[in-house]
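Work Package 3 (structural annotation) set out to generate three-dimensional models for the target panel prioritized at the project kickoff. During this period the team completed the workflow that converts sequence records into discrete structure tokens, so that structures can be stored uniformly alongside our sequence database. As a representative example, we reproduce one entry of 155 residues exactly as it appears in the project archive.
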Amino acid sequence: MKTRLAPILLTGLAVGIALIFVGLALLARFSEPKATHLIRSVPSPDGQTTAQIWQVVTPMHAGPDYAQVSLRARDGVTSTPVYARAFFCNDFSGYSLQWESNKRLTVWFGSCDMGASRSTADNVVLQESSKWRDIAIIYRDSGHVAHSSNWQPSY
């Protein structure tokens, strides 16, 4: 009895493992990573830190598109996000970075007018850090309002 059951169990186990691998392959194939586009990069006066503004476009149904500010040390490979704001416009002229000193960064941000399809409540701040390592970060509204006439919801 045991000799007949072992091949059936092994076959079932092999089929189960194969199905798991097929499922993982399909998941990897159809899941879209978010796309990032560098808008602006500004080094600190001493060149030790770089502040960057990114446009982050998320895949359909995965969340809002947003503007992100990241900081990266000169010797660092990756950057650390310090600010993120839902932003469905392509006009980033309201966003700028200004180093007041090596240890003080001012981030100027704009807003996005979605017109009739959305409200200005879509400009929600997702992340806002006031300090990164020993750098103070100040946030200021530039007053610039971008308009999104071509934006279409992704659902």
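The chain is about 20% helix and 45% strand.
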